[in-house]
Amino acid sequence: RAGSLIEMSKILLVDDSPAEIHQFKAMLELMGHEVITAENGRDGVTMAIAEQPDVILMDIVMPDMNGFQATRQIARGTDTKHIPVIIVSSKNQETDKVWGQRQGAKGYITKPVDTNELISVMRACL
Length: 126
Hints:
Blueprint: E1 10-14, H1 18-30, E2 34-38, H2 41-51, E3 55-58, H3 67-76, E4 85-89, H4 94-102, E5 107-110, H5 115-125
Parallel strand pairs: 1-2, 1-3, 3-4, 4-5
Helix pairs in contact: 2-3
């Protein structure tokens, strides 16, 4: 079981797509992780502060506050800067990856997500 290589973690999943949330949640819970969700960047920042997850999986394209803005707030927030943010997006341009890192993201995975890639990036961050 691939997920057993990572300790059970509390993962905050920030995505505005119910289908993506459902898919990720199912995959991560199957690996034994606790998954909490937020549907936009603003709620993601609030949940990060309140819940102190071990890692955050962040979509980019969302209403209200996008994933780059939310990542920047989390990476610079006193209460959240220790939490690694991994951007998970369909945007696959190198410029997006570089910009994500500049905002403080520790990893960048493109959709559709490969489970093994997700595990290895999460393992590197945890």
